[in-house]
Structure formats: C-alpha cells, structure tokens
Write a structure and sequence with these properties.
The complex is a heterodimer of chains A (about 475) and B (about 100). Chain A contains 15 helices and eleven strands. Chain A has about 475 residues and is α/β, with parallel strands linked by helices. Among the domains of chain A are: about 260 residues, Alpha-Beta Complex (Amidase signature (AS) enzymes); about 80 residues, no CATH class. Chain A is globular, with a radius of gyration of 21 Å. With about 100 residues, chain B is mainly α. The chains are: A alpha/beta (about 475), B mainly alpha (about 100).
C-alpha cells in the first residue's frame, strides 16, 4: 500500500469504491506521511488523527453500502480560518488561540455530509493577512520544494500540505490571492471561485466583499471535484448566489481549439523573476499549440489595483475585526476594571503586527476627513477595474497571466517591508476586486522552484478555466512533479 | 506626507488598539510608506463613476420572516472569557 497519500481524489475514489483500499488505509497513509515530514513542513496548526480515523471508518461503512460521493473517505486539510465544530479554529492568531466553534462552516458541512475525512487545520497568515505564512502567530510553514523558503500565503498550510503529500486536497480562502499564490509557489493547483459561488458562512471574515473559499489540489480534476461539493446557494450567506448546480468536471477533457485567450501585458511586471516569465511564456505557446487563439490584451487599470485593494481590504478588515473586544469570545485582557483599557489591551496583545497594521490602515481610510479621499476613491477605482475586465471579456474567453511575479522567496526575506510583501499579490488581487474566478496551475520551474500560471475568466466561468487548465495540464508533466523531502 | 505621531495615536484610539512607543514609531513610518503607494489613485479620473461596494452585483436579499431555532445559549456562552449565569460578564460600562 505504498504511496496512497499521493493519490488524486479521482484515483482514491476509484480504489475506494472498488474496495481495493479502505478509507482507513488511505487516511493512515496520510497520517504516516504527516508523521514523516510534518516536523519539517509544519503545514498544520491542529492535527485531528483520531477524528480522522473514526471519520474514515464511517466513510468505509458508507462506501460499503454503496453510498457517498467522490470525496467520501478522502482526507482533507481545512484552513484554520474556516470554522470546524468542536475543533479549534484560531485564524493563526493569539486572539482566537482557544476558540472552539460550535458549528461548522457551510463548506465544511457539505464535505462532511459526503463523508470527508478531516486531517486537521491548516496554517496561514494571521486572519489571512499575508503572502508567506510568516504572519502566523504560532509557527512558520516551509515550502516542500525548499525548506528555507516560504510556501506563500495566506493559505500556505493548504498548499504545502497538498504539495508534500500530507493531504489529498485542502480548502483555503482567497481574499487577494491567498489560494492561488501559495498554490503557485508550492507547485499545486488552486482555485478562487467567483464571488458568491461558495458560501462564506463560517468563514471567519477578513474582507467580506473579497473573501471566498477555494480548493487546493494536485490536479485540476481534484479542484473541480472539491468545487462540486462546496459550491451552491446557502440561505445563511446573503451574498451567496442562486444558480443551477453545475458539474464542474463535465467539460474536463474537452479540447480548447478556438478558445480565445488574452495575455495582458500589464501582468508581466517590471522586476518579475525571469525564469517565471519564461515558464509562463512557454506555457502560453503550449496553449496556442493546443489550438487556443492567443492575443495580447491591455488592462490599463491594473496599475491601480494594488492601491485600490489595500484601501478596500483593510477598511473592511478594520470593521470586521472590531468584534474582537474580549467580551464574547477570544483572548480577553482581564487585569483591569476599565472597559476601554481592557479592550485596548485585548487588541494590543491579541493581534500580531500585520493585523494591527491593516486595522490601523483601514481605520484611517474610513475616518472622518479621509473617507472620500481613500475609501470612496478606491470604490470608484474598483468600478473602473471591473469595467476594464468586462471590456476585454467581450473579446476573449479567459485571460492567461503569471500567478505571482516571484517564485518562493527565502524565509525572512520580505518581512521587514510591508510594501514589498504587498506587491507580490499584484497579479491576483485584481481578480478579487472584480469578484472573478481565478485558477493557478503549475507551468514549470525557475531555479528548481515551481511557477504558476493563472487563468482569469468572467463571473461564473469556472468551467472554462478548469477545462483550459486541464487541457494544459494533460499536455505537460508539471503537475506530476513531487518535491524531495 | 508622513503621518504625524499624533495622527498615529488618534488612529490607534479610534481602532481601540494599545501601542507601545516603538510601535507608534514603526507604524507611523510604515503607514506613511503605504499611504504613499495610494497616491497613484490620484491619476485616475473617477468623477461621475459609481462606487462599487460589492462585485457580485446582488441586490438586497430578503427572506421570509420565519422563526427558526438559533444557537443554544450554552453554546453561545461556551467561548465566553467571563460569564455569570446566562450572561457575558463585562466591566462596568456606565460611569458613576
């Protein structure tokens, strides 16, 4: 039973339903792998091996009775920003170090309803704010391709666990690139669905108009299977959209002849890693070879996206994180009888530096006298960015870009300079601003480090993105590469 | 334009976050650098542009006014830092 932990969801499902393997065996293989590499990768904040094995036993009974679906009995890691009933959900923050949710997020409930097996909770940047996982209050996560380097962020644990063969797939969340960028840096597939496709109920809020839960997998098919499970309207999230259920695997395997793909020059930024540029350019040629019609397009508002995002996201964050006042849940400073002092100390000690920075930034942008110049201006810029995408999508079916201008960087390399860290998300955050779907797929290596290519499409074009990415994946070998750890 | 120390203190008080001396200095510098990045937006003519609060395009969602079970009060209080019976215990809010 060697290497069961490296199976795809699709392969695992085939072997589980034919009873070649049991979910308990599959789960044990993942736990053994975790035992072997987790001291180096550290992708988990909480491990739940006993729960996983008992869920696996339940899944085996379901499978034995001919019940369940593609995810039944397949082990998953859940990012620690997504609420799991009875299992600590910390957001990698001291503020929620002892917080144990009393209900599941809808996405988790849907996985569990299918008989999924949860291995544990994934490390992340605190409250999903960061691009390297270095903002976790608890520990670093290391990139399986080079343990001296970051896995990306904020869903660094999700990407690292899948890349290291610890989990078969993972759920992350993406507010400005937090699923796609770590997927790119760890050489796995990551999908950020259209805003409103996946319920945010139980996803601890960072920036409510931008946040979306998305899957990370070792193949495009696995992301499609996970999306099938978590997508769909939820009355508990007023922003979730009513749509006919879609089978996102249905178009996988179809060719992309005649697919109109646009390459926006603005996403190949100055200072981009030259190996990454070369890999993405070669990938674009491969897509052309597969019959896609590729043309250059221009999105002139791209240069405003970073400023727009870093006003809107911190503004929403400052409002959302106002709830951490030490009263209802979370860390609470107790050594005073003064209400305001207790609140200030609670937030001083509970939040790490990046969270404090963003709460301060957002508070400033929303404060009297600055609201029009910052927040309102950014919201107007947001309209122009959205319109820019609408315009190019009249001529192309999807866009092809680098996912990140850089490959995995050294731990500590960028922690001293917030602006440098923010610049890493330059290719991913316009997608959240416009509420679009985006998918990152491995497209090669630069100096031994994975490079990701991003597909961006109009609202609810997940099928197009998955189909295009699958055609590319099938024509290349990148997704089957494994790190040596 | 760099933020003045008094501005940093004002923002922190609005956000109800206590800061140490070093943090006031550090955040002052870093926030100023970030705000500098925002100046690029001034190039953009946004006059007459409708602001976007939400890219989903949804209108206000209504539901039927039906009574449903909510969380059990024991569950609600499970993560409370301090409780007294069925209540969250807090410091005095009103001054004498």
């Amino acid at each position: 039973m060697a290497d069961l932990n490296w199976l795809s969801i699709q392969e695992a499902h085939a072997q589980l339903t034919s009873r070649q393997i049991s979910s308990v065996e599959l789960t044990q293989a993942c736990l053994d792998r975790i035992d072997a590499v987790e001291d180096r990768v550290q992708s988990f904040l909480t491990l739940t091996p006993e729960t996983a094995l008992s869920q696996a036993a339940v899944a085996d009974r379901m499978l034995g009775a001919g019940e369940g679906g593609p995810l039944t009995g397949v082990p998953v890691q859940i990012k620690d920003v997504i609420c799991t009933e009875g299992v600590p959900t910390t957001c990698a923050s001291r503020m929620l170090e002892n917080f144990v949710p009393v209900y599941n997020a809808t996405a988790v409930e849907r996985l569990m309803g299918q008989g999924a097996v949860m291995l544990g909770k994934g490390n992340m940047d605190e409250f999903a704010m960061g691009s390297s996982c270095e903002n976790s209050a608890f520990h670093l996560t290391r990139n399986p391709w080079d343990l001296d380097r970051v896995p990306g962020g904020s869903s660094g644990g999700a990407a690292a666990s899948v890349a290291a063969g610890e989990a078969i797939y993972a759920l992350g969340s993406d507010t400005g690139g937090s699923v796609r960028q770590p997927a790119a840096l760890c050489g796995v597939v990551g999908l950020k669905p259209t805003y409103g496709l996946v319920s945010r109920y139980g996803l601890i809020a960072f920036a409510s108009s931008l946040d979306q839960i998305g899957p990370v997998g070792r193949s495009v098919m696995d992301c499609a299977l996970a999306l099938n499970a978590i997508a769909g309207h939820d009355p508990r999230d007023a922003t979730s959209v009513r749509r006919e259920p879609t089978d996102y695997t249905a178009t996988l395997g179809q060719d992309i002849k005649g697919m109109r793909l646009g390459v926006p020059e603005e996403y190949f930024v100055d200072g981009m890693d030259s190996g990454a540029r070369k890999a993405v350019e070669e990938a674009v040629s491969t897509l052309e070879g597969l019959g896609a019609s590729v043309r250059p397009v221009s999105l002139p508002t791209t240069r405003y996206a970073l400023a727009c995002y870093y006003i809107i996201a911190p503004s929403e964050c400052s409002a959302n994180l106002a709830r951490y006042d030490g009263v209802k849940y979370g860390y609470s400073y107790q050594d005073t009888n003064d209400m305001w002092e207790a609140m200030e100390k609670t937030r001083e000690y509970g939040f790490g530096p990046e969270v404090t920075r963003r709460v301060m930034l957002g508070t400033y942008a929303l404060s009297s006298g600055y609201y029009d110049a910052y927040y309102l201006k950014a919201q107007r810029a947001r309209t122009l960015i959205r319109q820019d995408f609408d315009r190019v999508f009249q001529d192309v079916d999807a866009l092809v870009t680098p996912t990140s201008p850089v490959t995995a960087f050294k731990i500590g390399e960028k922690t001293g300079d917030p602006v440098q860290m923010y610049l890493i998300d330059v290719c991913t955050l316009p997608v959240n601003i416009a509420g679009l779907p985006g998918l990152s797929v491995p497209c090669g290596f630069s100096d031994g480090l994975p490079v990701g290519m991003q597909f961006i499409g109009p609202h609810f074009s997940e099928e197009t993105l998955l189909r295009t990415a699958r055609a590319y994946e099938a024509a290349t070998e990148w997704s089957s590469a494994r790190p040596e750890i | 334009m760099p933020l003045e120390r008094s501005q940093v203190e004002h923002i922190a008080s609005l956000a109800r976050i206590g800061l140490t001396e070093e943090e006031i200095e550090m955040f002052g510098e870093q926030l100023s650098q970030i705000l500098e990045q925002f100046e690029v937006l001034n190039e953009l003519d946004t006059s007459g542009v409708t602001p976007t609060g939400h890219a989903g395009g949804l209108q206000t969602v209504m539901r039927d006014d039906l009574a449903e079970d909510s969380l059990d009060s024991e569950d609600v209080l499970k993560n409370a830092p301090r409780r007294e019976g069925e209540f969250f215990r807090v410091n005095a809010v009103l001054e004498e």
